[in-house]
User: Fold these one by one.
Assistant:
Number 1:
Amino acid sequence: ITEVLAIDDEQSLDKALAVLRSGELVAIPTETVYGLAADANQPDAVRKIFAAKGRPADHPLIVHVDSVDKVERWVAQVPECVAKLADAFWPGPLTLILPKANHVSTVVTGGHSTVGIRVPNQSGVLKLLSMLDSGLAAPSANPYKRISPTNAEQVMYGMDGKIAAVLDGGPCEVGLESTILDVSTDVPRILRAGPITKSQIETVLGCEVHIPQSHNVAVPGNVKAHYQPSKPVQLLSSELLATTLTGLSRSAQNDIAVLYYSEPLQMALEGSAAVKMKLSSDKQLYGQNLYYALHQLDQADVSQIWVELPPTDELWLDVHDRLSRSSAK
Ligand code: TXA
Ligand code: MG
């Protein structure tokens, strides 16, 4: 049985700490999405993460720590840029890829010589990390290829019975996974778009940052079909979505869930029989609620999910990335 523990309760934190020390798994809230955590210093515990998720062993995990001072414990050498990036973005949704320290288990790094590391912006988890005095290896707390959970209930939906406990910290504030920045090479590279944009990073570093079209590491961020509801997702422009839907019979419309944000589409959909859900046109709010909405619509009595194509400017790059993987075949 998986126990649900309130994160703002001291006894709950003590319990979670004991569970982690004993080599079992605890799902934790972060500001981005919920993570599925094990003590990063216990390879046997970390192996259980891959089993619970059904994730291939060569997909590396992020190590979560409670402050930038702890980075040196996990990496071979701390480059200058780390202090600048930490000052600007930690605690927060930025993961740095660095050459790993010798002692860091390759179970954590998926066999790679680098390690991903970040300080999450969640006060209860930061407290837990300082009590543990280790790092927490944690991927998102969803079964492999599914949508990341942004509340404790969604964690239970995919993980109930497979893990010891879930720390419930309420809904995630950011709602989309961290930006992954590889600083293990000369030119920093963004391996996964996220809430912190390329321009924000370039401003802080004062140098150019690359976004490679594809990279070699076999990682979920590089898997085309990922972040998927169990129902097929189609990404459509506002116009195409409106005309296609209104061309269908009412019973056919009723079999489709539509996730949209724009006023024109709202007007065009009025009177249709589709199951509708509206997100904000403000990027922050949209990102906060996207996975929640997809989880909800996945459970609605429909056979398809149609999503209105979001705006195309840089701020929305992470949303585009996740939605195109959601809809990939
Ligand atoms: O916001 C987040 O990043 C959440 C929360 C829980 O921190 N975590 C998360 O973990 O999204 P996960 O495992 O679902 O995605 C992490 C991504 C994967 O694409 C993984 O392959 C990549 O980070 N990654 C981790 N270590 C890496 C490494 N050494 N080299 C390249 N990519 C790495
Ligand atoms: Mg994930």
Number 2:
Amino acid sequence: ERLYADDIEAILRLKQERNAVILAHNYQTPEIFHCVADIRGDSLALARDAQDLEADVIVMAGVHFMAETAKLMNPDKTVLIPDERAGCSLAESITAEDVRKMKERYPGVPVVTYVNSTADVKAETDVCCTSGNAKRVVESLNVPRVIMIPDEFLAQNIQNETGIEMLTWPGHCEVHERFTPQEIRQYRRMHPGVTVIAHPECPPDVVAEADYSGSTANMIDYVAKQKPEKVLLVTECSMSDNLTTLNPETEFVRPCNLCPHMKRITLAGIRRALENMQTPVTIPSALEAPARAAVERMLAI
Ligand code: 13P
Ligand code: SF4
């Protein structure tokens, strides 16, 4: 605790000196999530709340694509990522050239890209989505089929919900692809009455075993409102860690998988980022306008 206290004190002081805000994804560890974050949320909230910030500096306690999105929304501000290696298996699964080839193959079919993607992939996109608004975004297009990339499982889950045909891409989240329906059934046997909530990046046969599926923010709302006695969050480990203190009456059953990318962000790393103003995110100027337009179209829906 003492170890954390030094870093927390330093970060709170540096935030004032630099006029900085810290945006933290729900998968950040409790000492980041509860002690230094100014804004916490799912990918949608982080993109939306990055829009009207007064600060000069934004520190993204999350992964690289989230920092890029914050930079797209704030081209004149300094956006820092405390560890540039904090990537994402989904963002790394596809290139802009891959998207161009898909568009050639399916001319006229709209391209919906998960925000878990690089700026150059977003620049080839009609509209972005997150797991929190994917259904709404896809339905707003009023078409029988869409190209939905790069998360194959999210696309299949949304196809199951909407009946809209998804042309997709074999990208997977390395955290959520590891859950299996057998594992969920075993936990139900061990914890009778447990409420199971699965993230839509899970394979469809895992989502089919769940009582509810939603983005990390939707999961948080569900637990706060429904107050289940026991809950199993089929997602990244820090979600249960962060929610335990907020929902003392709920027991969190924990099978979870760690995201090695999210875990590259630490209190010490955030402190160093603010001390040395490292590492600023930049976006090639040719990509800025088309990538920002894809995010803005999503936020307008
Ligand atoms: P959400 O927080 O938008 O549900 O996304 C989960 C995730 O895996 C982010 O990388
Ligand atoms: Fe990417 Fe999955 Fe990690 Fe989120 S949890 S950053 S989708 S690898």
Number 3:
Amino acid sequence: MTVPPLEKTAETSAAPAPQESRLRRIAHLDMDAFFASVELLRYPQLKGLPVVIGGGRRKVDELLLQGPDGTGERERRFIPVEDFPRLKDYVGRGVITTATYPARQFGVGSAMGMMKAAKLCPEAIVLPVDFDEVRRYSRTFKAAILEIAPVMQDRGVDEVYIDFTDVPGGQREGGRVLARLIQKSIFEKTGLTCSIGVAPNRLLAKMASEFNKPNGISIVYEEDLQEKIWPLNVRKVNGIGPKAGEKLARLGIETIGQLAAQDEQWLIGHFGKSTGAWMHRVAWGRDDSPVVTESEPVSMSRETTFDRDLHAVRDRAELSRIFTDLCLRVAGDLQRKGYVARTFGIKLRYDDFKIATRDHSVAFYTADGPTIRKLAGQCLKRVPLDKRLRLLGVRASGLARVEEVPAQGPQRGAARGAREPTPGDSAEPGTTASLF
Ligand code: TTP
Ligand code: MG
Ligand code: MG
């Protein structure tokens, strides 16, 4: 491998490299066959076999967990390989979410209809997605990275950008040393593998992370543009989607190199000022966008301290109004930021400054205001309301990004919420919750 001059300088000088001689090194890390790999941790007997993830959870999946005699629900028991459902037995309109690498050798992959995939690989094992498990591993692998490299940008459930530039090892071998360390740490903490591309910027790193999948590292320098990037199809550029790809193909442009060969003005003529100029820039491997650190919230809450202490009975109407308002605000926060939650809680501070908190988890995710009002309202049944209150708060936790949970429309969430007893319904005397 040829080492670029700047890299060499940085490595051979005894003193730490001055800031300006460091190369900008940006990594893109993407987990390998993520949803499927998470299932293989649960069922290691399936390692090396074609496995696809797709379709909803079916009866056959429940039966599999229950065991032959119908007992031992969800109990961890060893399931022999031959007991798993096969693609050839699948009937329905589900599509494949992802597939293990052995399954991909049969031409099976994301977004393919399951029945079509069954023709290519009838013996592939079919499993449903376990979103909770996937999210748990998503958090764990990201936490492992943050322990090593602090500048990380979340790009979805299984991928992140990491700025290697100033991290120890981030310059060595173009970033390979640090990439190896991160792979090792993730594997130790999760048992999962990932692939990493390290390049001068996010644009090239994103492409590079695919070069050596699975469990690979790929190092790209600016001078590799012609050899490693230009032969790729334009669709490999993050941001050139199916429509732009088709239009470019109609114009006779298939590869990034062909795109780079076009005059910028010509591209602007066809795609408009901003897209045309952007296409020209990316074809030449240029991207200055920073890696923006943003951490996942663990909860969202709203609370309010009253102007005067309020009493659950005498100030019932006012408290009820404030409580509803807090719930709707929490719902608004969740919706605006693209989250749903399934644990809702309350916080009270009494006039003696003692604090009480309660929370309540449900089996579904929601960001629906009235549903949150009902669920948080149930927590009120479990706190003493005989003293005056100084503060009231509502909190949502157990968060998930809305796109990461199985589709469940607000109707379903609300309907299920509505089935729970509502605070106002429980009118037993002495049940303090009814006061709200
Ligand atoms: P990807 O990173 O695109 O795919 P992958 O991790 O399964 O495989 P690879 O090794 O090629 O990276 O997506 C991450 C997860 O997101 C994937 O395991 C399943 C899920 N996913 C969807 O839910 N819908 C989709 O259309 C795709 C592409 C992925
Ligand atoms: Mg992936
Ligand atoms: Mg991905």
Number 4:
Amino acid sequence: VHGVPPSLSAKVVGSFAYLTVRDRMPTILTRVIDTIHRNKNKFFEEYGEEGIQAEKQTISLLSKMRNELLTDKPLLELTDSLQDTESWNQYLQRQQKQQGDQDSVSWFKSPWLYVECYMYRRVQEALWLNPPISDYDVFNEGKTQSFFESQQAMMTLCTYVEGLNKNMEGLSKNQLLEHFNKLLQVSLWGNKCDLSISAGQDNSQKTSPIDSLDSLQPFILVNDSNRVWSALISPQRPGQSKETALVRVDIVLDNSGFELFTDLVLADFLVSSRLAHEIHFHGKSFPWFVSDVTANDFQWTIRQTTAANHKWMSKSGVQWMSHLKDGAWSYHDHPFWTQPHEFCDMEADAPDLYATLQGADLVLFKGDLNYRKLTGDREWDHTASFHTALRGFGPAPLCSLRTLKANVQVGLQPGQGERLGSQDPEWMTSGKYAVVQFDNAKSE
Ligand code: F6P
Ligand code: MG
């Protein structure tokens, strides 16, 4: 039996983890500080002198953290008292025990996944310690902007959907499959548009999401979409028979903006084609990795879409709204999604969430961070199987839709990784490549 490989870490000088901790994370923090400062007047208008005090305090806490990061200080316990504070502090204590030395659990010496999650939780701590502005979403401006900058691409997509819906009843199974594959790929490539990899800079969709699919095809390194399709058309949940099958698909969301839009389009298609009767969306309970979807972003995006100045786009929005009203769609969040755990720990650490996911026939995990958590963000050989890297995680048949933005990739053919590496040294981190990677724990 092979051991579990070590976690990616900024310890490895020059690695992507190292560059992220050294460059991208401080840049993100600087932007956060700047955003809070720019909104000083708004806080004053809303909360008077208290708002100004809160702004100052928050900035001072954040600058202090930035400094800790830049000088590789030990990670500190959280000092707020929220639902998840205890579990974060226990996690830190466990790390310290494992390392046997308090100081070695520091920004550059700890697992990258943990450190990066921790930074976003500390941003939240700084806000929460300053009640007047504790609900302020420091990433809201960027998310809103990236939504508007992708408008053209969204309209194109909605026009496609309109054409599809008009003919839905007359589609053969093969045609349905073809549309499914297209919308799955649109949602896959939607993951390019995240604001963490760009350290907060504009990263919106500028080209037609449908027209570019053919040329993007060669960049999908693993494509298990046929297995995803099978999971939909012959669900295997206990107690399901083929005739009465009510298929539930869970989508573990990643980023707001264009990516969320593509997820909603896919979810709408699944429901209107009756491939699924119910979609559960899972989002984050506080702002996370710059562009991740919160409840607020989710509602806002749907409302904006209903109000779009484009016939088919607003029609889509109205349709989505009605899915929410009639219960075909629902939005959920859980503290586990904003913790640093690998997903193989979910069953033990968040049994309620694990049980919830077991009610799905298919779980789609969007994006890079989810992939890192699925595989534990570890130095796996590229030829290790996805199933092995999941280390027993499998509440339901699952699929990762991910563009590559971190140094972890499993399930490749022998030699494939080496070949890619020699053609394009940045293949794992540029977001240029993608995978549609499926696993069904039960069938393996
Ligand atoms: O900051 C790096 C990172 O964690 C990368 O792994 C990835 O580029 C990004 O943040 C998050 O990506 P995604 O939004 O696809 O989860
Ligand atoms: Mg993200």
